[in-house]
Amino acid sequence: MIETLAQALAELDAQGLKRRRRTLETPSRAHMRVEGRPVVAFCNNDYLGLAGHPELINAARQAAVEAGVGAASAHLVAGHHRLHEQLERELADFVGLPDALLFSTGYMANLGAITALVGRGDAVFGDKLNHASLVDACLLSRAELTRYPHGDLDFLEAKLKASRAKTRLVVTDAVFSMDGDIAPLPELLALCERYDAWLLIDDAHGFGVLGAQGRGSLAHFDLRADRIVYMATLGKAAGVFGAFVAGHATLIEWLVNKARTYVYTTATPPLLAAAVSASLKVIAADGWRRERLRALVAQLKAGMADLPWRLLPSDTPIQPLIVGDNAAALRLAEGLRARGLMTPAIRPPTVPAGTARLRLSLSASHEPADIERLLAALRDLA
Q1: Longest dimension (CA), the chain
Q2: CB 115 within 8 A of CB 103
Q3: In terms of Cα–Cα distance, which of 340, 365, 309, 311 is closest to 45?
Q4: Is the pTM of this model over 0.90?
Q5: Quick one: pLDDT at residue 19?
Q6: Residue positions annotated with a catalytic role
Q7: pLDDT of 306-317, one tens digit each?
Q8: Among residues 270, 285, 300, which one ends one of the domains?
Q9: What's the pLDDT tens digit per position in 315-364?
Q10: Which of 32, 154, 287, 322 has the fewest C-beta atoms under 10 angstroms from its C-beta?
Q11: Could you give the dihedral angle defined by the CA atoms of residues 162, 117, 170 and 164, in that order, rounded to the nearest 10 degrees?
Q12: Same domain, 324 and 194
């Protein structure tokens, strides 16, 4: 059995698909030390530069003294702390929805919400570029799954119109994690209204970045509807850990009772809830962080004009640089790493075959000089 696995790993390596971990020696931020070397990182999702913010650290430290390190139990047993309850109210207010429910991760939030809403005899419709957690959740639900071509609303409408399922659910990323583009949420909501379907929005990469005061994709489009199931993560722009689902109070009560990834797992440490509460205040107050992100994105785009690789159209901190070939993407990433720049080479099955890329993630903690250094290295490698 071990030999079989070893051969399969060798095949992955030969195809340029084998992955490995890099070991950090400092907090994850724009400038950090990785395996003994200082690097400028264009690879994490700390879009607002909050992962090491002193106010978040102080909130976590004080909460650890008050509430301990671990929750020690599931929310429905004895693990639901006052800090969890407070944060759920704050998150609901922050995104403008009636109620919210904390989950340990975005993966668990999507698995729990989707499998609680649809099952055998129901139908679920997902964009082909949705995150793996959405795809896995749809498969686990045992509902009939239709994956529509990326952003193809006509295809989706035809499938919704033809569906005779008891319950219909449309699921989509708000900001697609490997392409950086924003889903047409108003049009998707209109289709769900027309064909009486739930709309689950995964705002992992929009929360904190999009909308007034970083309140997410719903604020960006000014959307509100009882049929919206809103999920966002708290380990990216918010700089901490965890996730939440927000929506109608009845929806949230249903998830408390039926979302298996909520019912059957230990609650996250209360100290993390305190850190997120502090993060929400910084996100709302520090508009300069989003302004700097927009300026850095514009700087990168302008500097890429004379280079042989193309950036996908994206106005978000996710800037995918398409290379095409797996080995070429790995060589380019390695060339940048040798110059002190850390960028991930994203390859199939994460992205479609032939579209291997460098996923450049920008942060408000980057400086314009960091972008110029990246551009200079790319010109050198070109």
Answers
A1: 59
A2: no
A3: 365
A4: yes
A5: 86
A6: 177, 205, 236
A7: 899 999 999 999
A8: 285
A9: 999 999 999 999 999 999 999 999 999 998 999 988 999 999 999 999 99
A10: 154
A11: 0
A12: no
